[in-house]
Predict the 3D structure of the following.
Amino acid sequence: MGVELEHISAAEAISLASGASVLLDVREQHEWDAVHAPEATHLALSAMRGGPVELDESANYVVICASGVRSETVATALLEAGYSAVNVIGGMAAWEQAGGPVVRPAANPPLN
């Protein structure tokens, strides 16, 4: 019997990320550089595929990517490894549309 991943809205993610949960951004470096949530921890999916990574076993992870596909893969893997994790539906685009704070260099336009 597998684990069942919880999918949450961007609004729920914003609320959780401002509390005790860790917002884990699994997008690639160039995506992170373009726009990211200021409180997020960056750990690209490609880096995770390169070998073991160390994460806080006691943390609750709110996993986000660009659209929710890569984050679903990572959140599921985290659950299967015994971590607490949820997936953000709609990714960073939904995060920003829901009013989540972002850091964006001036040269990068909004995601909408």
Q: What stands out?
A: The beta strands are 6-8, 22-25, 41-42, 60-64, 84-88.
